[in-house]
Specification:
Blueprint lengths: L3 E3 L14 E4 L9 E5 L2 E3 L10 E4 L5 E5 L2 E3 L2 E2 L5 E2 L5 E4 L2 E3 L2 E2 L6 E2 L5 E3 L2 E3 L2 E2 L6 E4 L6 E3 L2 E3 L2 E2 L8 E6 L3 E3 L2 E3 L2 E2 L7 E5 L10 E3 L2 E3 L2 E2 L6 E5 L7 E4 L2 E3 L2 E2 L5 E3 L3 E4 L2 E3 L6 E3 L4 E4 L2 E2 L15 E3 L2 E4 L44 E5 L6 E4 L4 E5 L6 E5 L3 E5 L6 E5 L4 E6 L2 E6 L4 E5 L5 E5 L2 E8 L2 E4 L2 E2 L5 E2 L2
Protein backbone atom coordinates (compact mmCIF):
# COMPACT_ATOMS: atom_id res chain seq x y z
CA UNK A 1 0.00 0.00 0.00
CA UNK A 2 1.27 3.46 -0.92
CA UNK A 3 1.52 5.73 2.14
CA UNK A 4 1.95 8.99 0.21
CA UNK A 5 2.88 10.55 -3.10
CA UNK A 6 3.92 14.17 -3.17
CA UNK A 7 5.72 16.82 -5.22
CA UNK A 8 6.08 14.58 -8.27
CA UNK A 9 5.88 15.31 -12.00
CA UNK A 10 4.79 12.78 -14.60
CA UNK A 11 7.74 11.52 -16.68
CA UNK A 12 7.52 11.92 -20.45
CA UNK A 13 7.53 8.13 -20.84
CA UNK A 14 3.97 8.06 -19.48
CA UNK A 15 2.80 10.63 -22.05
CA UNK A 16 2.29 13.30 -19.43
CA UNK A 17 -0.33 11.36 -17.44
CA UNK A 18 -0.46 10.71 -13.68
CA UNK A 19 1.62 13.30 -11.84
CA UNK A 20 1.49 11.35 -8.58
CA UNK A 21 0.36 7.87 -9.62
CA UNK A 22 -0.09 6.34 -13.06
CA UNK A 23 -2.03 3.08 -12.87
CA UNK A 24 -2.59 0.90 -15.91
CA UNK A 25 -4.17 -2.54 -16.07
CA UNK A 26 -2.49 -4.63 -18.75
CA UNK A 27 -4.42 -7.85 -18.15
CA UNK A 28 -6.64 -9.66 -20.58
CA UNK A 29 -10.23 -8.44 -20.87
CA UNK A 30 -11.65 -11.71 -19.56
CA UNK A 31 -9.46 -11.87 -16.46
CA UNK A 32 -10.68 -10.10 -13.35
CA UNK A 33 -8.37 -8.02 -11.18
CA UNK A 34 -8.51 -5.14 -8.72
CA UNK A 35 -6.53 -2.16 -7.51
CA UNK A 36 -6.91 -0.60 -4.06
CA UNK A 37 -5.65 2.82 -2.97
CA UNK A 38 -6.29 3.07 0.78
CA UNK A 39 -5.53 5.79 3.36
CA UNK A 40 -3.10 7.48 0.98
CA UNK A 41 -2.14 11.17 0.80
CA UNK A 42 -1.41 12.35 -2.76
CA UNK A 43 -0.35 15.98 -2.70
CA UNK A 44 1.53 18.62 -4.69
CA UNK A 45 1.93 16.61 -7.92
CA UNK A 46 1.60 17.87 -11.48
CA UNK A 47 1.37 16.73 -15.07
CA UNK A 48 0.65 18.56 -18.28
CA UNK A 49 -2.18 16.34 -19.58
CA UNK A 50 -4.32 13.95 -17.48
CA UNK A 51 -4.48 13.27 -13.75
CA UNK A 52 -2.33 15.53 -11.58
CA UNK A 53 -2.83 13.22 -8.59
CA UNK A 54 -3.90 9.86 -10.08
CA UNK A 55 -4.39 8.62 -13.64
CA UNK A 56 -6.41 5.40 -14.04
CA UNK A 57 -6.14 3.50 -17.32
CA UNK A 58 -8.15 0.30 -17.07
CA UNK A 59 -11.05 -1.63 -18.53
CA UNK A 60 -13.85 -3.97 -17.44
CA UNK A 61 -13.80 -6.45 -15.68
CA UNK A 62 -10.95 -4.85 -13.75
CA UNK A 63 -12.07 -2.89 -10.66
CA UNK A 64 -10.61 -0.08 -8.58
CA UNK A 65 -11.30 1.12 -5.05
CA UNK A 66 -10.04 4.47 -3.75
CA UNK A 67 -10.89 4.78 -0.05
CA UNK A 68 -9.83 7.03 2.83
CA UNK A 69 -7.44 9.03 0.63
CA UNK A 70 -6.66 12.72 0.28
CA UNK A 71 -5.79 14.27 -3.08
CA UNK A 72 -4.70 17.87 -2.55
CA UNK A 73 -2.84 20.64 -4.40
CA UNK A 74 -2.32 18.59 -7.57
CA UNK A 75 -2.43 20.06 -11.08
CA UNK A 76 -3.11 18.86 -14.63
CA UNK A 77 -4.79 19.95 -17.83
CA UNK A 78 -7.72 17.63 -17.11
CA UNK A 79 -8.48 16.07 -13.74
CA UNK A 80 -6.37 18.06 -11.32
CA UNK A 81 -6.89 15.44 -8.62
CA UNK A 82 -8.06 12.32 -10.48
CA UNK A 83 -8.56 11.29 -14.10
CA UNK A 84 -10.17 8.07 -15.29
CA UNK A 85 -12.30 5.29 -13.89
CA UNK A 86 -15.19 3.25 -15.20
CA UNK A 87 -18.32 1.50 -13.93
CA UNK A 88 -16.17 -0.72 -11.70
CA UNK A 89 -14.49 2.22 -9.93
CA UNK A 90 -15.63 3.21 -6.43
CA UNK A 91 -14.23 6.36 -4.78
CA UNK A 92 -15.21 6.27 -1.10
CA UNK A 93 -14.58 8.54 1.90
CA UNK A 94 -11.94 10.49 -0.03
CA UNK A 95 -11.07 14.21 0.06
CA UNK A 96 -10.28 16.27 -3.06
CA UNK A 97 -9.14 19.77 -2.17
CA UNK A 98 -7.15 22.64 -3.66
CA UNK A 99 -6.54 20.81 -6.94
CA UNK A 100 -6.31 22.75 -10.21
CA UNK A 101 -7.08 21.95 -13.84
CA UNK A 102 -6.12 24.22 -16.72
CA UNK A 103 -8.85 22.46 -18.73
CA UNK A 104 -11.67 20.40 -17.22
CA UNK A 105 -12.29 18.87 -13.79
CA UNK A 106 -10.41 20.63 -11.01
CA UNK A 107 -10.96 17.98 -8.35
CA UNK A 108 -11.46 15.03 -10.63
CA UNK A 109 -12.63 14.00 -14.05
CA UNK A 110 -14.72 10.91 -14.51
CA UNK A 111 -15.37 9.68 -18.04
CA UNK A 112 -17.97 7.01 -17.43
CA UNK A 113 -19.92 5.34 -14.63
CA UNK A 114 -17.77 5.63 -11.52
CA UNK A 115 -19.38 5.88 -8.09
CA UNK A 116 -18.34 8.63 -5.63
CA UNK A 117 -19.64 8.00 -2.11
CA UNK A 118 -19.11 9.97 1.12
CA UNK A 119 -16.47 12.16 -0.54
CA UNK A 120 -15.60 15.79 0.11
CA UNK A 121 -14.69 17.89 -2.94
CA UNK A 122 -13.56 21.32 -1.76
CA UNK A 123 -11.82 24.45 -3.03
CA UNK A 124 -10.81 23.01 -6.40
CA UNK A 125 -10.49 25.19 -9.51
CA UNK A 126 -10.93 24.54 -13.22
CA UNK A 127 -10.22 26.90 -16.11
CA UNK A 128 -12.70 24.89 -18.21
CA UNK A 129 -15.79 23.23 -16.71
CA UNK A 130 -16.44 21.42 -13.47
CA UNK A 131 -14.53 23.08 -10.67
CA UNK A 132 -15.08 20.07 -8.43
CA UNK A 133 -15.84 17.28 -10.89
CA UNK A 134 -16.34 16.91 -14.64
CA UNK A 135 -17.82 13.97 -16.52
CA UNK A 136 -18.21 13.72 -20.27
CA UNK A 137 -18.94 10.45 -21.99
CA UNK A 138 -21.95 9.61 -24.18
CA UNK A 139 -24.30 7.25 -22.38
CA UNK A 140 -22.49 7.34 -19.06
CA UNK A 141 -24.23 7.04 -15.70
CA UNK A 142 -22.09 8.57 -12.94
CA UNK A 143 -23.34 8.18 -9.37
CA UNK A 144 -22.69 10.67 -6.57
CA UNK A 145 -23.93 9.63 -3.14
CA UNK A 146 -23.66 11.59 0.14
CA UNK A 147 -20.88 13.84 -1.16
CA UNK A 148 -20.06 17.44 -0.28
CA UNK A 149 -19.07 20.01 -2.93
CA UNK A 150 -17.97 23.33 -1.43
CA UNK A 151 -15.87 26.32 -2.49
CA UNK A 152 -15.13 25.00 -5.99
CA UNK A 153 -14.72 27.42 -8.91
CA UNK A 154 -15.11 26.89 -12.67
CA UNK A 155 -14.14 29.39 -15.33
CA UNK A 156 -15.35 29.14 -18.92
CA UNK A 157 -18.77 28.95 -20.59
CA UNK A 158 -19.34 25.26 -19.80
CA UNK A 159 -19.70 26.22 -16.14
CA UNK A 160 -20.48 23.91 -13.26
CA UNK A 161 -18.74 25.36 -10.22
CA UNK A 162 -19.34 22.16 -8.27
CA UNK A 163 -20.01 19.69 -11.09
CA UNK A 164 -20.24 19.80 -14.87
CA UNK A 165 -21.89 16.74 -16.42
CA UNK A 166 -21.61 17.03 -20.18
CA UNK A 167 -23.10 14.52 -22.62
CA UNK A 168 -24.17 12.18 -19.80
CA UNK A 169 -27.20 9.90 -19.94
CA UNK A 170 -28.68 9.33 -16.50
CA UNK A 171 -26.64 10.64 -13.58
CA UNK A 172 -27.79 9.72 -10.06
CA UNK A 173 -27.02 12.39 -7.44
CA UNK A 174 -28.37 11.56 -4.00
CA UNK A 175 -27.90 13.06 -0.54
CA UNK A 176 -25.23 15.56 -1.66
CA UNK A 177 -24.53 19.10 -0.42
CA UNK A 178 -23.44 22.01 -2.63
CA UNK A 179 -22.18 25.12 -0.83
CA UNK A 180 -20.39 28.24 -2.12
CA UNK A 181 -19.50 26.91 -5.57
CA UNK A 182 -19.12 29.39 -8.44
CA UNK A 183 -19.34 29.34 -12.25
CA UNK A 184 -17.50 32.57 -12.92
CA UNK A 185 -17.96 32.79 -16.70
CA UNK A 186 -20.76 30.31 -17.30
CA UNK A 187 -23.85 28.46 -16.15
CA UNK A 188 -24.74 26.32 -13.17
CA UNK A 189 -23.02 27.46 -9.98
CA UNK A 190 -23.68 24.17 -8.21
CA UNK A 191 -24.25 21.87 -11.19
CA UNK A 192 -24.19 22.43 -14.94
CA UNK A 193 -25.98 19.46 -16.48
CA UNK A 194 -26.02 18.84 -20.24
CA UNK A 195 -27.41 15.39 -20.84
CA UNK A 196 -28.97 12.98 -23.33
CA UNK A 197 -32.55 12.17 -22.43
CA UNK A 198 -33.74 8.59 -22.94
CA UNK A 199 -37.18 7.00 -23.26
CA UNK A 200 -36.15 4.13 -20.95
CA UNK A 201 -37.43 4.61 -17.38
CA UNK A 202 -34.38 2.77 -15.99
CA UNK A 203 -32.10 5.39 -17.55
CA UNK A 204 -33.90 8.35 -16.01
CA UNK A 205 -31.58 10.94 -14.45
CA UNK A 206 -32.24 11.83 -10.80
CA UNK A 207 -31.20 14.40 -8.19
CA UNK A 208 -32.74 13.52 -4.83
CA UNK A 209 -32.33 14.72 -1.20
CA UNK A 210 -29.69 17.35 -2.00
CA UNK A 211 -29.00 20.84 -0.62
CA UNK A 212 -27.83 23.78 -2.76
CA UNK A 213 -26.93 26.94 -0.83
CA UNK A 214 -24.88 30.08 -1.57
CA UNK A 215 -23.82 29.00 -5.07
CA UNK A 216 -23.28 31.54 -7.87
CA UNK A 217 -23.32 31.60 -11.67
CA UNK A 218 -22.52 34.58 -13.87
CA UNK A 219 -25.03 33.20 -16.39
CA UNK A 220 -28.15 31.04 -15.92
CA UNK A 221 -28.72 28.74 -12.96
CA UNK A 222 -27.13 29.97 -9.75
CA UNK A 223 -27.77 26.57 -8.19
CA UNK A 224 -28.31 24.29 -11.19
CA UNK A 225 -28.71 24.33 -14.97
CA UNK A 226 -30.57 21.62 -16.93
CA UNK A 227 -30.09 21.29 -20.68
CA UNK A 228 -30.84 18.28 -22.86
CA UNK A 229 -29.60 17.34 -26.33
CA UNK A 230 -32.83 15.60 -27.35
CA UNK A 231 -36.44 15.49 -26.29
CA UNK A 232 -38.39 12.55 -24.85
CA UNK A 233 -41.43 12.00 -22.68
CA UNK A 234 -39.27 10.84 -19.75
CA UNK A 235 -38.44 13.85 -17.54
CA UNK A 236 -35.39 14.19 -15.32
CA UNK A 237 -36.44 13.76 -11.66
CA UNK A 238 -35.56 16.56 -9.21
CA UNK A 239 -37.20 15.41 -5.97
CA UNK A 240 -37.02 16.46 -2.29
CA UNK A 241 -34.21 18.97 -2.66
CA UNK A 242 -33.54 22.28 -0.89
CA UNK A 243 -32.30 25.24 -2.97
CA UNK A 244 -31.76 28.49 -1.11
CA UNK A 245 -29.63 31.65 -1.10
CA UNK A 246 -28.17 31.03 -4.56
CA UNK A 247 -27.69 33.75 -7.17
CA UNK A 248 -27.23 34.03 -10.92
CA UNK A 249 -27.54 36.46 -13.80
CA UNK A 250 -30.89 35.09 -14.97
CA UNK A 251 -32.14 32.40 -12.60
CA UNK A 252 -30.69 32.20 -9.10
CA UNK A 253 -32.14 28.76 -8.37
CA UNK A 254 -33.01 26.45 -11.29
CA UNK A 255 -32.75 27.14 -15.01
CA UNK A 256 -34.19 24.44 -17.24
CA UNK A 257 -34.67 24.08 -20.99
CA UNK A 258 -35.42 20.35 -20.79
CA UNK A 259 -37.98 17.84 -19.57
CA UNK A 260 -37.71 18.30 -15.82
CA UNK A 261 -40.00 17.31 -12.95
CA UNK A 262 -39.40 19.43 -9.83
CA UNK A 263 -41.25 17.88 -6.91
CA UNK A 264 -41.34 18.09 -3.09
CA UNK A 265 -38.61 20.74 -3.15
CA UNK A 266 -37.91 24.02 -1.36
CA UNK A 267 -36.69 26.66 -3.83
CA UNK A 268 -36.64 29.83 -1.76
CA UNK A 269 -34.60 33.01 -1.16
CA UNK A 270 -32.77 32.77 -4.50
CA UNK A 271 -31.84 35.86 -6.54
CA UNK A 272 -33.12 37.20 -8.88
CA UNK A 273 -35.71 34.40 -8.95
CA UNK A 274 -36.20 30.77 -8.05
CA UNK A 275 -37.06 28.81 -11.21
CA UNK A 276 -37.07 29.51 -14.93
CA UNK A 277 -38.36 26.71 -17.17
CA UNK A 278 -38.09 27.43 -20.89
CA UNK A 279 -40.07 25.69 -23.64
CA UNK A 280 -42.88 24.63 -21.30
CA UNK A 281 -41.05 21.37 -20.49
CA UNK A 282 -40.59 21.91 -16.74
CA UNK A 283 -43.32 20.84 -14.31
CA UNK A 284 -43.38 21.99 -10.69
CA UNK A 285 -45.49 20.29 -8.02
CA UNK A 286 -45.64 20.19 -4.22
CA UNK A 287 -42.87 22.80 -3.99
CA UNK A 288 -42.37 25.80 -1.71
CA UNK A 289 -41.07 28.82 -3.66
CA UNK A 290 -40.65 32.52 -2.94
CA UNK A 291 -43.30 33.37 -5.53
CA UNK A 292 -46.15 30.90 -5.92
CA UNK A 293 -45.61 28.73 -8.99
CA UNK A 294 -48.32 27.17 -11.12
CA UNK A 295 -48.76 23.46 -10.37
CA UNK A 296 -50.45 20.98 -8.04
CA UNK A 297 -49.72 21.29 -4.33
CA UNK A 298 -47.39 24.30 -4.63
CA UNK A 299 -47.11 26.86 -1.83
CA UNK A 300 -45.31 30.08 -0.98
CA UNK A 301 -44.58 30.33 2.74
CA UNK A 302 -41.44 30.98 4.76
CA UNK A 303 -39.78 27.54 4.99
CA UNK A 304 -38.69 28.09 8.61
CA UNK A 305 -35.25 26.50 8.60
CA UNK A 306 -33.46 26.05 11.91
CA UNK A 307 -31.20 28.93 10.79
CA UNK A 308 -27.57 30.03 11.01
CA UNK A 309 -26.73 27.97 7.93
CA UNK A 310 -28.68 24.93 9.13
CA UNK A 311 -31.25 23.97 6.49
CA UNK A 312 -33.05 21.33 8.53
CA UNK A 313 -36.70 22.13 9.05
CA UNK A 314 -37.75 23.77 12.31
CA UNK A 315 -40.63 22.24 14.27
CA UNK A 316 -42.98 24.96 12.98
CA UNK A 317 -42.10 24.68 9.29
CA UNK A 318 -45.09 24.72 6.91
CA UNK A 319 -43.17 22.26 4.71
CA UNK A 320 -43.81 19.40 7.17
CA UNK A 321 -46.23 16.77 5.80
CA UNK A 322 -47.00 18.91 2.70
CA UNK A 323 -45.33 16.78 0.00
CA UNK A 324 -46.59 13.89 -2.10
CA UNK A 325 -45.72 10.22 -1.73
CA UNK A 326 -45.54 9.82 -5.52
CA UNK A 327 -41.92 9.05 -6.53
CA UNK A 328 -40.68 10.25 -3.11
CA UNK A 329 -37.58 8.60 -1.58
CA UNK A 330 -37.97 6.42 1.51
CA UNK A 331 -35.36 8.39 3.52
CA UNK A 332 -33.95 11.94 3.70
CA UNK A 333 -30.48 13.46 3.42
CA UNK A 334 -29.62 12.28 6.95
CA UNK A 335 -30.95 8.78 6.41
CA UNK A 336 -34.10 9.44 8.47
CA UNK A 337 -37.06 7.46 7.14
CA UNK A 338 -39.83 9.10 5.12
CA UNK A 339 -42.54 9.79 6.01
CA UNK A 340 -41.89 10.56 9.66
CA UNK A 341 -45.33 12.06 10.28
CA UNK A 342 -48.62 11.97 8.42
CA UNK A 343 -47.02 12.82 5.08
CA UNK A 344 -43.78 13.46 3.19
CA UNK A 345 -42.02 16.72 4.12
CA UNK A 346 -40.98 19.16 1.39
CA UNK A 347 -37.22 19.62 1.00
CA UNK A 348 -34.12 17.50 1.60
CA UNK A 349 -34.89 17.08 5.31
CA UNK A 350 -37.64 15.02 6.90
CA UNK A 351 -38.28 16.67 10.25
CA UNK A 352 -37.53 14.56 13.33
CA UNK A 353 -37.01 15.78 16.87
CA UNK A 354 -33.27 15.08 16.75
CA UNK A 355 -32.81 17.62 13.91
CA UNK A 356 -32.91 20.46 16.43
CA UNK A 357 -30.01 19.00 18.43
CA UNK A 358 -27.23 19.82 15.93
CA UNK A 359 -26.17 23.41 15.25
CA UNK A 360 -24.70 24.32 11.85
CA UNK A 361 -22.24 27.24 11.93
CA UNK A 362 -20.89 28.80 8.72
CA UNK A 363 -17.94 31.11 9.33
CA UNK A 364 -17.04 34.05 7.08
CA UNK A 365 -13.96 36.21 6.59
CA UNK A 366 -15.73 38.93 8.55
CA UNK A 367 -16.70 36.51 11.32
CA UNK A 368 -14.14 33.69 11.56
CA UNK A 369 -14.69 32.77 15.24
CA UNK A 370 -17.09 30.33 16.89
CA UNK A 371 -17.79 28.97 20.37
CA UNK A 372 -19.47 25.60 20.87
CA UNK A 373 -21.20 25.26 24.22
CA UNK A 374 -20.55 22.33 26.54
CA UNK A 375 -22.44 19.09 25.80
CA UNK A 376 -23.79 20.40 22.48
CA UNK A 377 -23.52 19.09 18.90
CA UNK A 378 -22.20 21.30 16.10
CA UNK A 379 -20.93 21.22 12.54
CA UNK A 380 -18.71 24.19 11.59
CA UNK A 381 -17.82 25.26 8.04
CA UNK A 382 -14.60 27.28 8.12
CA UNK A 383 -13.06 29.88 5.82
CA UNK A 384 -9.85 29.65 3.82
CA UNK A 385 -8.16 31.97 6.30
CA UNK A 386 -7.50 31.67 10.02
CA UNK A 387 -10.42 30.47 12.15
CA UNK A 388 -10.63 30.44 15.94
CA UNK A 389 -12.79 27.78 17.57
CA UNK A 390 -13.56 27.25 21.27
CA UNK A 391 -15.04 23.86 22.17
CA UNK A 392 -16.80 23.30 25.48
CA UNK A 393 -16.42 20.14 27.56
CA UNK A 394 -18.51 17.22 26.33
CA UNK A 395 -19.28 18.82 22.96
CA UNK A 396 -19.40 16.80 19.73
CA UNK A 397 -17.98 18.93 16.89
CA UNK A 398 -17.18 18.35 13.21
CA UNK A 399 -14.95 20.92 11.50
CA UNK A 400 -15.29 21.20 7.71
CA UNK A 401 -13.10 23.16 5.26
CA UNK A 402 -10.26 24.40 7.50
CA UNK A 403 -7.29 24.77 5.10
CA UNK A 404 -5.75 27.78 6.89
CA UNK A 405 -3.72 28.04 10.10
CA UNK A 406 -6.42 27.71 12.73
CA UNK A 407 -6.65 27.78 16.51
CA UNK A 408 -8.83 25.26 18.35
CA UNK A 409 -9.16 25.62 22.12
CA UNK A 410 -10.69 22.64 23.94
CA UNK A 411 -12.12 23.62 27.33
CA UNK A 412 -11.72 20.21 28.88
CA UNK A 413 -9.34 18.86 31.49
CA UNK A 414 -9.78 15.21 30.49
CA UNK A 415 -7.30 12.93 28.76
CA UNK A 416 -7.50 12.66 24.96
CA UNK A 417 -6.72 10.03 22.36
CA UNK A 418 -6.55 10.42 18.58
CA UNK A 419 -6.95 8.28 15.48
CA UNK A 420 -7.30 8.92 11.75
CA UNK A 421 -9.81 7.91 9.14
CA UNK A 422 -8.46 8.90 5.74
CA UNK A 423 -7.07 12.38 6.30
CA UNK A 424 -9.56 13.16 9.06
CA UNK A 425 -8.50 13.17 12.70
CA UNK A 426 -10.81 12.17 15.55
CA UNK A 427 -9.98 13.55 19.00
CA UNK A 428 -11.74 11.63 21.79
CA UNK A 429 -11.88 12.98 25.35
CA UNK A 430 -12.58 10.83 28.38
CA UNK A 431 -15.36 13.28 29.34
CA UNK A 432 -17.22 12.70 26.05
CA UNK A 433 -15.72 15.61 24.13
CA UNK A 434 -15.29 14.60 20.49
CA UNK A 435 -13.79 16.63 17.64
CA UNK A 436 -13.50 15.58 14.00
CA UNK A 437 -11.21 17.76 11.92
CA UNK A 438 -9.24 17.57 8.67
CA UNK A 439 -5.46 17.31 8.67
CA UNK A 440 -4.13 19.88 6.20
CA UNK A 441 -0.83 20.94 4.73
CA UNK A 442 -0.88 23.96 7.07
CA UNK A 443 -0.39 23.75 10.82
CA UNK A 444 -3.36 23.67 13.18
CA UNK A 445 -2.95 24.83 16.77
CA UNK A 446 -4.91 22.72 19.26
CA UNK A 447 -4.99 23.67 22.93
CA UNK A 448 -5.65 20.65 25.18
CA UNK A 449 -5.42 20.99 28.96
CA UNK A 450 -3.88 24.45 28.44
CA UNK A 451 -1.02 22.95 26.40
CA UNK A 452 -0.61 23.70 22.69
CA UNK A 453 -0.38 20.77 20.27
CA UNK A 454 0.44 21.19 16.57
CA UNK A 455 -1.49 19.09 14.05
CA UNK A 456 0.05 18.91 10.57
CA UNK A 457 0.93 16.63 7.66
CA UNK A 458 4.67 15.97 7.60
CA UNK A 459 6.41 13.72 5.04
CA UNK A 460 3.10 12.06 4.19
CA UNK A 461 2.25 11.34 7.85
CA UNK A 462 -0.36 13.01 10.04
CA UNK A 463 1.37 14.26 13.17
CA UNK A 464 0.37 15.77 16.52
CA UNK A 465 3.64 17.27 17.68
CA UNK A 466 6.06 14.34 17.20
CA UNK A 467 3.39 11.62 17.46
CA UNK A 468 2.23 9.84 14.30
CA UNK A 469 -1.55 9.42 14.19
CA UNK A 470 -2.62 6.14 12.58
CA UNK A 471 -5.86 4.17 12.23
CA UNK A 472 -5.46 2.78 15.74
CA UNK A 473 -6.26 5.09 18.64
CA UNK A 474 -3.23 6.54 20.49
CA UNK A 475 -3.11 8.57 23.69
CA UNK A 476 -2.08 12.17 23.16
CA UNK A 477 0.97 12.85 25.28
Amino acid sequence: MIESSSDCQAPLGLNGHGGGIYYRYNGFDDIEGSAIFENTIISGNSTYIYGGGIYLNMSTPHSCLITGCTLSSNQASQGGGLYGGDENTLVYNTIFENNYATGYGGGGINKSNSVFMDCKIRNNTSDGGGGGLYSSWAGSNPQLINCEFSGNIAYGYTGGGGICLNNCASPKIMGCEFYNNSAMDGKGGGISLHYHAYSDEEKRGEIINCIFADNYASEEGGAILFETYCSTEIPFYFINNTITQNSGFDSGGIYSSSELSVQNSIVYYNSPNDIIGDNGLTTISYCNTTELMEGEGNMSELPEFIGNGDFHLSWNSPCIDRGTMLNAPDSDIDGDKRPEGEGIDIGADEFVDSDSQETIIILTDASPNATVEADSIAKIYGTNGANNIIVGSGADVELINFPGENSIIIQSQSSFSAYRTGAMIILDGSDGTKIKLPATMTQQSIIINDVEKILAIDSGCIMINDQIVNLDSVAIE
